[in-house]
Specification:
five-stranded parallel β-sheet, 11 helices
């Protein structure tokens, strides 16, 4: 059997794949010709209906990661192609980055780094930040990553947890120790740090819009480590330029990688990272290994552990 891998994965799961199949990797000029592919592992590569139609032997598309907005799921179902993802593999890495970015915003680390060497004194007043201790984190999405982010901030900084998630009942939120709000503007009005942890769908595109952003507490911080299209970047720019947000950080953009003329990149109170949420040694091993295991299960006639419907 043949497994095609158009983007780099960790060498450990790559070796595992090679033990069981013929593997065509990103280094092969024919890696995007899936005519004889039984399986593919993708990260950000677009898997369209046309691409699957041109792959008559294709049985499984294994997503290396959680978000599957780059895969035409309805077309895959229609064509009998199984789609899987790795929903538990990058939880810790993405949550830790979200906390890192929240701290960086609160302490104005981006501005401090950019201006280092220009001061003739220490502790410049304009770099005075805020503490997270005792404040409230607003979790946009109460799935694995959102909840883990909240737990780190609760346990490490004594932050209260609030959340917005239409798919989580008030009773379940209470069990998790989260104060649930029924609308996003309500959450923004009652949180000091807001983190985005939802998948990108037509229902969540521009979920964080001007109405939500303008409802924020004065001095609030927004962190997005999910998908760029969830946050309206024009509205975010306005909320950072004229208030009420004190700062924001994004690991993801609507168009990636962002170009230097993206207005957000001109702001002192904005921090960006190049989609590195899952880029840790541990997460890369877990994601790659899970993707390979799912392929071996499906090609071996077993049901996948993490099917995407």
């Amino acid at each position: 059997m043949k497994i095609y891998i158009p983007e780099p994965i960790h060498e450990r799961p790559l070796a595992m794949a090679r033990e069981h199949a013929q593997v065509v990797t990103w280094e092969d000029p024919g890696v995007m010709d899936w005519t004889d592919a039984d399986a593919v592992i993708v990260r950000t590569t677009k898997v369209t209906r046309e691409r699957m139609l041109a792959a008559p032997k294709l049985k499984i598309v294994a997503k290396h990661g959680m978000g599957t907005d780059n895969i035409d799921i309805p077309a895959a179902a229609e064509l009998g192609v199984t789609v899987t993802n790795t929903p538990t593999a990058n939880t810790e890495s993405v949550a830790e980055l979200a906390v890192t970015l929240a701290l960086a915003c609160a302490r104005k680390i981006g501005q401090a780094v950019r201006t280092e060497g220009t001061y003739d004194h220490i502790s410049p007043r304009e770099l005075s930040g805020t503490e997270l201790q005792g404040k409230t984190v607003g979790l946009i999405g109460l799935g694995k990553i959102g909840y883990r982010t909240g737990c780190i901030l609760r346990d490490g900084f004594g932050m209260a947890m609030a959340g917005y998630d239409p798919f989580v009942t008030a009773e379940r939120a209470q069990e998790l120790g989260v104060t649930k709000y029924e609308t996003l503007p309500e959450l923004f009005a009652n949180a000091d740090v807001l983190t985005v942890s939802v998948p990108l769908t037509e229902g969540t595109r521009h979920l964080v819009n001007a109405q939500a952003l303008q409802s924020a507490r004065k001095g609030a911080i927004l962190v997005n480590t999910a998908r760029g299209g969830i946050v309206d970047e024009d509205a975010l720019y306005a909320a950072l330029k004229d208030g009420p947000l004190a700062a924001a950080a994004m690991d993801v953009f609507a168009s990636e990688p962002p170009t230097k003329d993206n207005p957000l990149l001109t702001l002192d109170n904005f921090i960006s990272t190049p989609h590195i949420g899952a880029a840790t040694e541990e997460a890369l091993i877990r994601m790659g290994t899970t993707a390979v295991e799912e392929i071996l299960r499906v090609l071996g006639g077993q049901p996948p552990r993490y099917p995407v419907r």
